[in-house]
Every structure is written in C-alpha cells, then in structure tokens.
Specification:
This protein has 325 residues and is an all-beta fold. The protein folds into 2 domains: 152 residues, no CATH class; 125 residues. It contains no helices and 20 strands. The strands form 5 sheets. Strands 3, 5, 7, 8, 10, 11 and 12 form a 7-stranded antiparallel sheet that branches.
C-alpha cells in the first residue's frame, strides 16, 4: 500500500495479511477441547487491525506509539478453520492499559472488518519485501491466546501463554519494460524470487497480472495476463496478453498451489525492451520499487490492501506468503 502505517512512509513497507487458523481436532488427550476460544491481538506499532482514523483506535496511519492494542475474538469447534481477521469481525480495543492483553472488561468496539480490497480489511503490517523491519518496528506480527471450553460459552481455561505469529514471507520482485509502441502499450515483466523462505523457486507460480491506476486496491482494473507460470532460479519473463489501462501492475502469485495468494505492485514506465529480452535482463532495465498486499487471503498474503492474499492483499496467511498493498 501507499498509505503510511504508524507514521512510517518508507517505500514498500506497508503490507496486508489475513491468517487462517484451524482449531485442533480431539485426539484422546487431556488437552482435548470441544471448543477453542481464539483471541487474535495486533502488535502496535508494527501491526494494526484498523487503519482508518478513529477516536477509539486513534489514527493508525500516524500514531507512532506502541498502542492502543486491538483484537478480534472467535470461538471455533474442534477442527474448524477461520480467517483472522475476516469481514464482519468486531475489532475491539483492549481494556486496562492501552498495550495490555485484557479482554474481559473495559474493552471498546472500534468497528467491523470491511470487505477485501477496502481500508479496514486485514492486519496492516510493517515489513520490507526482504523480510526486514522498517521504522524501528519490532516484535511479531500478532499474538494469539488459546482457551479451552466444554461448550461454546465456556467456561474457558487458558492453554499455555500467548503465542507469537511471525511467519517468513515468501516474496518475488519484478522489473518492467515496454514492448508495444502504440495505445496504452503492453509490458514485459521480468519476475524472480526475492525471499524464498526455503521454498523451491519452481513452487512460486504467477497466476494473474492486474492493471489499474490505484496504488492501494489490487482488485480494480483489468486482468492483462492470467495463467500458472512457474518461476525459476533466474528471471522469468511474462508478456501481457492484453493492454488494459493505468500505471500500476499488480502481480498475483502463490507458493502452495493457490491456498494462499500474495500480490506485489510495480509501476509501468517508458523503458523499451531490448531485443527479445526483458529490460530486467539488460543494462536498460530499471527496477521499480515494490509495494504489495499480502493476503494470507494468510495470509490473503495482498504478501504480498494485497499480499494486500498475502498472505505475501500479500491479503502475508498462517504462515502467509503477504494483499501491502
């Protein structure tokens, strides 16, 4: 995303994640539970469950303090899976101290998670494409508290302490050159693996390229290429098959066959492709700065609001690959 988070406006630093979490099945042990209550906390200033300016949440775009902490809470039957956060989830501010983990009293509602591709749709996260942290951000992406209950209404017994969610985020990078000379032009993208997280390059597969004029929302515009292109240890060139319009190209990719999808964004330019090679492979190629949305969608990496799926609109999943958008 191009929107600042926690006062950090470094390029390619704001990503969106959604995590899918599954409650354990009963297995005949003393820790078996009919129901699990899961409380998912953000970690300000590194992550925020809310991005819009709000009296209760303050202004997550400019607030550089490590507060206020927000959370969403769900009850899952054994074996059930849910997204954190998901559209319609109630986001609440913790009770007591603004950076506490108190949820039993004194909490205040901030709002409900909105539809994918909108502002308050995910866990907004500070992270660079290579996995490092910008703007003195620290700690995990999120914390998770797990409690056991005999019924969906409890009573609830804590299972261990707070767990940290901080996955390695698989990431790609891309350069762009123009090989059409008329109209809106078609572009060639030279795509390679930036952060593998131990995953073979051939497991990285590009599935869609979307073109629009929006630096935050990857679902706008027109698909100008779709398929299932495996990457390699070198640069893989993909030519747009249609033109569309706009100065932003959103590249969707997956590392797990489509369970999690991430998106990165690159800007178009006037660099002409050299011969049959992409500018990405020649002295004429000029890398464009990346932003993305990881949607662990996660993670909707949107890691790569697209992963943004993410997990990299991202929608970034547990673990996400990141809709920033």
């Amino acid at each position: 995303m191009s929107v600042s988070l926690s006062g950090c406006n470094s390029a390619s630093s704001h990503w969106d994640f959604i995590f899918r979490i599954t409650a354990a099945l009963k297995s005949g042990t003393a820790c078996d539970c009919n129901y699990l209550r899961l409380t998912f906390f953000d970690n300000p200033k590194r992550t925020r469950l809310w991005i819009s300016n709000n009296t209760t949440a303050q202004n997550p775009q400019s607030n550089t303090s490590n507060s206020p902490r927000l959370f969403v809470q769900k009850v899952l039957a054994a074996g059930a899976t849910a997204a954190f956060p998901a559209q319609g989830d109630n986001v609440r501010r913790v009770g007591g101290a603004s950076n506490s983990f108190q949820t039993d009293s004194g909490t205040a509602s901030v709002g409900t998670i909105t539809a994918p591709g909108t502002a308050d749709d995910s866990l907004h996260t500070l992270i660079f494409p290579n996995g490092s942290l910008p703007c003195s951000a620290s700690g995990p992406m999120a914390y998770l508290r797990v409690e056991c209950g005999a019924t969906s209404n409890g009573p609830w017994t804590p299972l261990g302490g707070l767990a940290e969610i901080n996955p390695c985020v698989p990431m790609i990078q891309a350069t762009v050159c123009r090989f059409d000379t008329t109209g809106n032009d078609r572009y060639r993208l030279g795509i390679s693996v930036l952060n593998s997280c131990g995953i073979p390059a051939s497991s990285f597969r590009v599935t869609n390229i979307q073109r629009n004029n929006d630096t935050n929302f990857p679902n706008e515009g027109t698909s100008v290429w779709s398929g299932n292109q495996a990457l390699s240890n070198a640069v893989t060139n993909i030519d747009m098959t249609s033109t569309g319009s706009g100065g932003q190209l959103w590249i969707s990719f997956t590392t797990d066959g489509g369970t999690n999808t991430s998106r990165i964004r690159v800007s178009t330019n006037n660099n002409t492709c050299v011969g049959a090679r992409a500018a990405a492979e020649s002295e004429a190629g000029t890398p464009e700065p990346l932003t993305a949305q990881s949607e662990a969608e996660t993670g909707t990496s949107t890691p790569p609001e697209t992963p943004e799926s993410g997990i990299p609109e991202t929608d970034a999943s547990p673990p996400p690959p990141p809709t920033d958008q």
